[in-house]
């Protein structure tokens, strides 16, 4: 797990930092990706993790970001009345377990040019719980 | 939930009040001066130090939109008639911070060559669910928690490290709001060692 976590950090993060910073980055990477002790214990709860998205999203309403009801199987960039980036509209993504997992791991890498300014949910187990929860949302009313 | 549970438990009320007047009297000003120096006052920003100012403007625009919504949410809370002192004063103070954040974000977007969006004329808040002071506090706490997460998710994306620093400064302020609102709700004010 340790090597994998470190390997996942883009090299630019470590560049110019010297050993001490590289070490610190590795510790933080462990924390943020869930290999650290902080993650031990309870199963992550998708609904709770969704609270991280509350500044911009809600299930029922378009806000800074589009609403999430009916996400399962929907084409990316297709919620009516929401003004997406070109990048999202032209992404040809359909939201399912795989595509959501990839997008939420690193939104700007998955959809270059997206206006969703959020680094992502880095812990795999948290992301999986969040994706399951999002996919189970009912259709929009 | 009964009305009495909304108000901070007697033992906690006094420190909350003291802290609040300290915040209004001193903290707010100091923070805003620091934030302005960090953001709007930096000549290096105007010069567009490194590569991706456009992407940075994008991140700032997202933050600005969230701040504007928070301002409107506190306005709704303050005008609802559901908030009593000292909670009402708290809401007004926090709204003031969000206004300062929004101002500094907007002027930074301008400095970087972007065009800051105006606040929406109306927001689609779940007003039907806001029936008591406790509902309003929970709603506000949810927005503050979301704002903390959003800034946390924005900090590593900034190309310009001064902007990352400024975002972290705002994150700290909003985390304090969240903690105080939790306290007012009778919840553990700081539920964990890390925010996420």
Note down, in words, how this protein is organized.
The complex is a heterodimer of chains A (141) and B (196). With 141 residues, chain A is mainly alpha-helical. Chain A has a domain at 46-135: Cytochrome c-like domain (Cytochrome Bc1 Complex, Chain D, domain 2). In chain A, 43% of the residues lie in helices and 0% in strands. Chain A has 8 helices and no strands. In chain A, helix 6 (97-105) crosses helix 8. Chain B is built from 7 helices and no strands. The longest helix of chain B is centred in the first third of the chain and has 29 residues, at 10-38. With 196 residues, chain B is an all-alpha fold. Chain B has helices at residues 3-6, 10-38, 43-46, 53-79, 87-111, 133-154, 161-184. Mean pLDDT of chain B is 82; it is low at 1-34. In chain B, helix 2 runs parallel beside helix 5 (87-111) and helix 6 runs antiparallel to helix 7. Chain B has a single domain, classed as Ferritin, CATH 1.20.1260. Helix content of chain B is 69%, strand content 0%. The radius of gyration of chain B is 17 Å and the shape is globular. The chains are: A mainly alpha (141), B mainly alpha (196). The A-B interface holds A 31, 38, 51-56, 61-64, 108, 115-120 and B 58-59, 61-63, 65-66, 69, 123-124, 142-143, 145-147, 149-150, 152-157, 193-194, 196.
Mean pLDDT of chain B: 82
How far apart lie the N and C ends of chain A? 43 Å
What's the alpha carbon Rg of chain A, rounded to whole Å?
A: 17 Å
How many helix segments of chain B?
A: 7
Number of domains of chain B: 1
CATH topology call of chain B = Ferritin
Which CATH class of the domain at 46-135 in chain A applies here?
A: Mainly Alpha
Instruction: Tally the beta strands of chain A.
Output: 0
Extended strand count of chain B: 0
Q: What is the level 1 CATH name of chain B?
A: Mainly Alpha
Which runs of chain A of at least 5 residues are low in confidence (pLDDT < 50)?
1-17, 35-40
Kindly report the name of the CATH homologous superfamily of chain B. Ferritin, core subunit, four-helix bundle
CATH homologous superfamily of the domain at 46-135 in chain A, by name? Cytochrome c-like domain
Measured as a percent range, the helix fraction of chain A is: 40-55%
| Shape descriptor of chain A | globular
Question: What can be said about the biggest beta sheet of chain A?
Answer: none
β-strand percent of chain A reads: under 5%
């Amino acid at each position: 797990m340790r090597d994998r976590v470190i390997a996942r950090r883009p090299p630019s993060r470590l560049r110019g930092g010297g050993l001490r910073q590289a070490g610190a980055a590795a510790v933080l990477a462990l924390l943020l990706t869930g290999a650290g002790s902080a993650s031990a214990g309870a199963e992550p709860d998708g609904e709770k993790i969704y609270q991280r998205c509350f500044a911009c999203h809600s299930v029922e309403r378009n806000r800074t970001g589009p609403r999430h009801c009916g996400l399962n199987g929907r084409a990316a960039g297709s919620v009516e009345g929401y003004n997406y980036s070109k990048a999202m509209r032209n992404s040809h993504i359909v939201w399912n377990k795989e595509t959501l997992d990839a997008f939420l791991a690193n939104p700007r890498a998955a959809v270059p040019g997206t206006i969703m300014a959020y680094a992502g949910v880095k812990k795999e187990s948290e992301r999986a719980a969040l994706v399951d929860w999002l996919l189970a949302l009912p259709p929009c009313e | 939930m009964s009305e009495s549970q909304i108000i901070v438990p007697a033992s906690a009320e006094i420190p909350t009040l003291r802290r609040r007047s300290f915040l209004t009297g001193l903290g707010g000003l100091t923070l805003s001066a620091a934030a302005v120096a960090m953001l709007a006052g930096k000549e290096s920003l105007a010069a567009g130090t490194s590569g991706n100012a456009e992407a940075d403007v994008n991140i700032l625009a997202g933050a600005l939109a969230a701040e504007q919504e928070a301002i409107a949410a506190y306005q709704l809370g303050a005008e609802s008639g559901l908030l009593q002192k000292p909670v009402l004063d708290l809401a007004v103070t926090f709204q003031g911070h969000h206004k300062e954040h929004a101002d500094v974000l907007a002027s930074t977007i301008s400095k970087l060559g972007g065009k800051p969006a105006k606040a929406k004329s109306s927001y689609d808040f779940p007003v039907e669910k806001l029936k008591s002071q406790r509902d309003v506090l929970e709603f506000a706490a949810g927005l503050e928690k979301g704002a903390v997460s959003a800034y946390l998710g924005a900090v590593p994306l900034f190309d310009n490290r001064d902007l990352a620093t400024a975002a972290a400064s705002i994150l700290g302020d909003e985390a304090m709001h969240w903690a105080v609102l939790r306290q007012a709700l009778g919840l553990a004010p700081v539920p964990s060692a890390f925010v996420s």
